[in-house]
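[job 0417] fold request received: Multidrug resistance protein
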Amino acid sequence: DKKITGKIEFRNVSFAYPSNPDRLVLKNVSFTIQPGQSLALVGPSGSGKSTVVALLERFDPLEGDIYIDDVLVHNYEINHLRSQIGLVSQMPLLFDSSITDNIRGGLTNKTKEEIEHAAKLANAHEFITNTLEKGYNTNVGELGGKLSGVQRIAIARAMLLGPSVLLLDEATSALDTKSEQEVQEALDKIKEQIKQTTVTIAHRLSTIQNSTKILVLVDGEIVEQGSHQELLRANGVYAILCQSQKLLEEKQTMHKQTSQDREQSLIDMANPHMSSDRLVGNFPHVVPNEQYQD
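[job 0417] inference complete; emitting structure tokens
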């Protein structure tokens, strides 16, 4: 029952789900990641990324072998293995109970100080203490639409576990840009402070550029692997994905700027003599027009 260090190796792994045994969702996948390194999985929907994560939680492959610390994964007692692997998914499962209970999970021996330390790692402590009247006693049902708060609580729960391996399955994909930034800052801080092995499935490629290794999966096969810079130089699938995502983000930014310009024009037309600094409070993204300054 010793603590694992987090070395992960897939050797010629193929997998099909029992519900559809004739369709291989992973085909002859091989890679190695050393303790403390970060691995990112990218590729279109249905390419097999989430299956890699599921196999690390001890699903059994159809063919090939999976090793953690050079031990076959199915030789680990399942509860021992899962006690050392933290998972944060797109829609984390929280209990209808207090934030403290949700961070603690089943770890009843953890102290208040340990829970707060985990929350600080997850950039959740200030959110809990400064914006929630009941603080850590707040029921998670009262968080309403604060999805970034929910995600940070899920990250804190994973951190309290003290995992050797952290699995992030599109942990920020359900969030808006601001909330995603808050959660991503927490994840970046964790990677700096705690040298655990991290496996990330990311929909926004800008969040995984510093990964030790990036695997590009298409239809269950690894078509490219390397660092961000290596894959850009290869000018293959990853470079195309990066370019298309960059163009999409630029298009969204241009659309937002056009909307803001239109809004400013309407303000100026409706209030040609009003000092625009009186309007900025209602439209915080509108830049005051010098011509109308008092």
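[job 0417] notes: The CA atoms of residues 17 and 78 lie 20 Å apart. The first strand starts at residue 8 and ends at 15.
[job 0417] exit 0
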